[in-house]
Request: fold
Amino acid sequence: MPIHVPGKKFRNHRLLSKQKGKREVTALLSLTAMVDMFTVLVIFLLQNYNTEGLIVNIPKDLLLPRAEVIKELKPSIIVTISSSGILLDDFPIANFEEVKNQKDWMVQPLFVEAQKAIEKAKLKAETSPVMKEVRAALKPEEMAELENLEPWKKITVQAHKEIDFLTIKKILFTLTEAGAGEINFAVLQQPDMPQQ
Reply:
């Protein structure tokens, strides 16, 4: 068999001569490889997406205390206590210095707004389509047990770690009087301590 110089073999080919020497390039896309790639991508994204817990916006000037034992926060009403003021769900309620210096335990503006927020959360929970389905599926004694949990009364308190305890106690007293059930504190998890 004779040895041909590369490139000259196809110049006079009868199929290529109709196209004036140009080759037609057909790119075949491997659908199986693409489906495999997208499957891996979807699994990666699903594993890295966290749907549990409560996402809390922490203001820049707020330094949360650290704790060794923590639990995940559930959706709730958020009260923020910082040196700039008292906020309820990111809305300013009272001035911090006024609350700190007052003799009365009841912080009246917070009391009124907390009651409104609890009532709004209760109305939202009672009218949600999911709760209607749950009520239809549960027995009366199970429903009574669910109502006793009262998830709309949950409140999360974010307090700067250097705020005095008396001011925090005034806030907690006011929230309890307004009808709060479970009060949790937002904290940062203590990093793992090296073993000695």
Q: What stands out?
A: The helical segments are 14-17, 31-48, 96-101, 108-127, 129-137, 140-149, 165-177. Residues 66-189 form one domain. The CA atoms of residues 25 and 70 lie 62 Å apart.
